[in-house]
Amino acid sequence: MTLEQLQDRSVNARPSHGTVADVMDAAGPQVWYDMTVEVALSVMAAARAEHLVVCDEDARCVDLVTRARLTAVRDSSRYTDRLRLGDITDDSKPFVSPSATREEAEEAVPLRRFGPVPVVDDHGSALGVLALSR
């Protein structure tokens, strides 16, 4: 294969079939749920990340927060500098198994949910994120 042939392939090409593990992205920065919103925004800016995986004291994934969500919380009337990620997380959000197919993952996620969904193992540890767009 020539260099030209290699360059013609899309870097973002992903298989349409297979498991979530085949198409997930890296989890990105993981932070603790007792971190303040302001510190989380600073971590996000320093890491140049659009989301953070939020973990509990046992390192289990409890949520995924985006820059837009944190900014909205910070700009809301209920914001204080002591507001922590655990105060804004919603542990009812869907998580996806790495062995699920992409179709199964999309069916498990409510229609209103867009963007990255955490991929977790049987112990709740974040393995990556699956970007969903509809």
Which features characterize this protein?
disordered N terminus, 30% helix, alpha+beta, CBS-domain, 134 residues, elongated
Q: How would you describe the overall organization of this protein?
A:
With 134 residues, this protein is of the alpha+beta class. The protein has a single domain, classed as CBS-domain (Roll), CATH 3.10.580. It has helices at 3-8, 20-23, 37-47, 67-74, 85-88, 102-108, and strands spanning 30-32, 51-55, 61-66, 115-120, 126-132. A 3-stranded mixed beta sheet has the order 1-2-3. A two-stranded antiparallel ribbon has the order 4-5. Helix 3 packs antiparallel against helix 4 (67-74). This is CBS domain-containing protein. InterPro entries: CBS_dom, CBS_dom_sf, Diverse_CBS-Domain. Pfam families: CBS.
Compressed to H and E, one letter per element, the order equals HHEHEEHHHEE
Strand arrangement within the widest β-sheet reads 1-2-3
Radius of gyration, taken over Cα atoms and rounded to an integer in Å: 17 Å
Helix-and-strand structural type? alpha+beta
Short description:
The protein has 134 residues and is α+β, with helices and mostly antiparallel strands.
Write the layout of secondary structure elements.
Elements: H1 3-8, H2 20-23, E1 30-32, H3 37-47, E2 51-55, E3 61-66, H4 67-74, H5 85-88, H6 102-108, E4 115-120, E5 126-132
Parallel strand pairs: 1-2
Antiparallel strand pairs: 2-3, 4-5
Helix pairs in contact: 3-4
InterPro entries: CBS_dom (IPR000644), CBS_dom_sf (IPR046342), Diverse_CBS-Domain (IPR051257)
Domain CBS: 20-70
Keywords: CBS domain
